[in-house]
Description:
It is a multi-pass membrane protein. It comes from Micromonospora inaquosa. The chain crosses the membrane at residues 99-120, 387-408. By secondary structure, the chain is of the alpha+beta class. It has eleven helices and 14 strands. The protein has two domains: 1-125 and 279-408, no CATH class; 134-248, PDZ domain (Pdz3 Domain). The longest helix is centred in the first third of the chain and has 31 residues, at 2-32.
Amino acid sequence: xxxxxxxxxxxxxxxxxxxxxxxxxxxxxxxxxxxxxxxxxxxxxxxxxxxxxxxxxxxxxxxxxxxxxxxxxxxxxxxxxxxxxxxxxxxxxxxxxxxxxxxxxxxxxxxxxxxxxxxxxxxxxxxxxxxxxxxxxxxxxxxxxxxxxxxxxxxxxxxxxxxxxxxxxxxxxxxxxxxxxxxxxxxxxxxxxxxxxxxxxxxxxxxxxxxxxxxxxxxxxxxxxxxxxxxxxxxxxxxxxxxxxxxxxxxxxxxxxxxxxxxxxxxxxxxxxxxxxxxxxxxxxxxxxxxxxxxxxxxxxxxxxxxxxxxxxxxxxxxxxxxxxxxxxxxxxxxxxxxxxxxxxxxxxxxxxxxxxxxxxxxxxxxxxxxxxxxxxxxxxxxxxxxxxxxxxxxxxxxxxxxxxxxxxxxxxxxx
Length: 416
């Protein structure tokens, strides 16, 4: 029940954010005097509506987004009533049209920033000093976290029946123990522990010295077998190695909580990292199509592949089911930021395409004026329709592929 509740809550959060996106267009357009005739949440048949002034507001039957109808977005629009010619959008200065078209993305960014700030002063944000790379982790003291088992292959999957029990657990080691030596070899860092274990073989007996609550102790255990790539080549071929069945407990906290003022700087830093990550994710999109197809046809799902709103909602359900509300809200932040950036791409039919055309017209008029030629006027959107259809076709196919993969072979964050 909690999983279903999480799915519904996340889907509702997405619907609200998309509705606010359209509200951003609505409010800025009205503020500039443009005529807005419709604002609806959802698509399809109208369930309920009312009219206030010249605008009809309402709810449609398919809750998969929303729309805002601004009269005369392009010179080719034919829905301009007599007397409204001066209020059509395309006649307004380019800076006003840019604000109106960017308002949707700005709304998504605002939602993300507000949520990040709230998290910064409540649950905390990821600690920038937390070791996130293999090299940083190896410099940490060898304070251990016991695994339930040793997975025999090079995989991050959950334990399954038949997997070897953790040798560290069999040796009566506990979470938080700091290993100081293995078979007499001093262990000063987690990297030392990994290097020393790689020098042993599966089935060898390991004499382990450790410190627990300030008191030294010793134990012994028989090492299990797993597969790992070479320590100096994480992308190399995995081979059988000895395993103790432990992970690292970092010496730094995973999250940091800030005061109301300090949270502004932390929000800015986190948003900068989020922007870089979003740009990198957009660059990787074409490369991930084969991986999505592999997941759809029965292969393993790459956790770095894109997800649709269906996949995001499922992850939201998992987060609620496991009481991981921070994960839930971080998903909300990431999705809003991604949608905000995506909508600013200079491609029709998204908002960024309209902004790009508006500024192209402005630049072209400026150039023509400087060379003494007549202003060529507005771009003919009808001539751009073939390119728009290509973008819609590619985007639609990618969306369907992602949704199908999220239904057939979804990404999961928790073992269920």
